[in-house]
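Tutorial, part two.
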Amino acid sequence: MIHSLRGRIIALCVSLVLLTSLVSLASSWWSTNRFNDQKLREDINVAENVFKQYLSAKESLLLTAAKVLTADFGFKQAVATQDADTISSVLNNHSRRINADLMLLVDLSGQLVSANTEFNHMPDEFSALMNELLIDAEQSNFIVLDQTLYQVILLPVRAPRTVAYSLVGFEINDLVAAELKNLTTMDVSFIGEDDGVVETSLSKQPQSTSVLAHFNNETTQRIFGEKPVYRNRIVELPSLPGHLVSVLLSADLTQSYREFEQLFFTIIVLAAITVVIGVLTSGILAKNLTTPLSKLTLLAQQFARGNYKAEFVGKKQSSEITTLIDAFNNMGNDIKEREQQISFQASHDSLTGFYTRSAMLENMENLFAEGAEYTLVAIDIRGLRHINDKLGPRIGDDCLKAVAERIGEYSAHHNGVNARIGGDEFLTLLPADETKQFKDAVMKLVVQLQAGYLIQGLNITLRFSVGVVHCLSQNVSPEDLMRRSLIAVDTASCEHKTIHYYQEGEDEEHLERLAIIDELKQALVDDDGQLFMTYQPKLNIKTNSIDKVESLIRWQRKDGQWVSPELFIDLAEQSGVIVELTSWVVKTVVSQVAAWQQQGITMQAAINVSAQDIAYPSFYSHLAKQLEKHAVNGRLITIELTERDMIENEEQGIKALENLKTLGVKISLDDYGVGQTSLGRLKSLPIDELKLDKCFILQLDQSRQDQYIVQSTVTLGHQLGFSVVAEGVENKNSLDILVQNKCDYAQGYYLSRPLKSEQFLQWLEVYNEAS
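Running the prediction step on this input gives:
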């Protein structure tokens, strides 16, 4: 619940209410305490002032009464004559008139002469008190006589000199304490020297403890714990040294506690009511907010499923929610448009607008479900790479768009479907009903495509290779049909034809080639003897010895079937496996040369490589590593390349060959004479050997033209500093002619066919013995 938006809104509102209540409660507690404390201090101050005024009034009354008494002539005469009856009568009468509780006459020595009341016994401390009062006469003091507290004043009786002292006082009893409590609203307790309470305003004194301890230690249990009942202040009263008297003013805090607790509970109740109201209102608010959000969530889910027609259904919402709903609807429309755009881009070529390969297969699958008859035409633009290289990629792109436009125009008249499946490859699927004479239809399409193009002011003629497959859709899958069309276009390209119609069996042949490539890769990985090297000896015509061989690879499958070197090497070059294959050959041949060296046989070995091999960055490092690993001198290895490889990659090839020569290896130009190497280019090539193609040697003894070519080539090679090798020697007569023309080396079946290493050593031993 708390993780939902509704729950969070309710929790937020409740939290705010609770926080506000807590802050209000804390603020009220702090301000109430501060106010009560200040008011209490003010009340105590007021009570203290009232008490002092009360005492002052009593003191004035005492002073007036004492002065009236001491000024009475009859009283002074009676004191002077020591008329006891008169003195007693005057004291009693005067005390009744002023309601004095104590009226005494003492002599100059402090002894009691007469009194308006009789004590049960004269206190022992009376004489000492009189002496102290005499020291501070005419001042009001509080004294305790016979456990009774009095406020007294002592005045001299002069006749005319001082003959005695009159002591007038009022008793401080519980009635006085009660009267003071009414005046001050506080409990009043009079305390003597030994902290004994003389009088108090309490209606009932505690029995278990003293009144003073009661006021100081009395506590009450409240909601916030145990609290003191009274706040006390002690006020010192005018009294005699050694007989100090003070008053204890005690403010009752119970009412303050009660008022604060009432306020506290009021705030709690209000907070609870506010929380309930907050929960209800926030729930309503959250519902009004989350309900449209839930509906918007459902709307978003519909959009996610691709249902962009879904709409928000609900009552009138707030302006913000309405804006959000509009934004959702706009988002759905935008997503729909972008999805359509992305879907189109995913299934269509960005340059031509044709279907992509995968989209074409999907369309073919849908069309073939109807069981109709179709013609699939694959179109490849020849030489487009050269246009990009010479004129730039923008011209090349414009050529592609122009070709696509013509294909589209033609197929539109026949309800065709078009696709671009490669950089310069197109597919067109034509229904057979629209192209009953499909060969004529394909020819018309080719004629339309071969017409000249005007690209950015340039007249450009494009050449095409076209592969055609005609079939019933229920007999073949779209993938097979597309593969067959590509096989047909590759065949047209390889045979330099414009159109090639797919023939039964070509697909199987193509799959067989793919299988051969896969098996070749696995054979290189396993290195289980399927691949092995043979060595065909080369005769040194000058010395009549064998000091060179040509290394030739052979492959015999696990089932014993032989694979033609021309076939699998050509497939290796087409598939890029040639690099791994040549790497294996180099490692095998160098290790074999090293093994022969260990047997005391020094033999130069030639290795045939392709342009891909020498262009590969790691070829040089791999050859150098193998030479170093097997301790083979580079001069024992000859690298043979054909004229074709040198012509197609002349600049790159020359640089790679110069790097190889730093290892000491020899460079041989193979199949010389059948290519297009000019004398000027031959002069610049970093080669050591020319190898005459066997087409000039096979019938050398029967062809004067071949003899002239061999003679001139040997002479030219020697003049340029090259050694010359003739391959394809099939008989002794041909060998004799080569000897006459001073050719350097001869190679052919007349000497020996290619042999495995063990067979070659046996043959070499026999040859050396015979020679």
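The radius of gyration is 66 Å. In part three we will examine how such features are distributed along the chain.
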